[in-house]
Amino acid sequence: MKDIDRVITLESARQRKIQHDAPPWNQVFLTEEQFDRADRASRIVKAESLKEFCRNIILTRADEIIADKKRG
Length: 72
Hints:
By secondary structure, the chain is mainly α. It is built from four helices and no strands. The chain is elongated and about 45 Å long.
């Protein structure tokens, strides 16, 4: 079942590259391997979606950077 999910995910990413109205994932991930790593990590933590996972990671890191700046 994981193989099927992976194929669907990769095909969706490939199609987004050629669809102008789709979210620009290829602007975030430079390679298919980067996309795959993020997708695998999102599944490990049972994220609702890759989009939700990425948003949470980005905002968590942003908060850490801001907190470090305030302390220093």
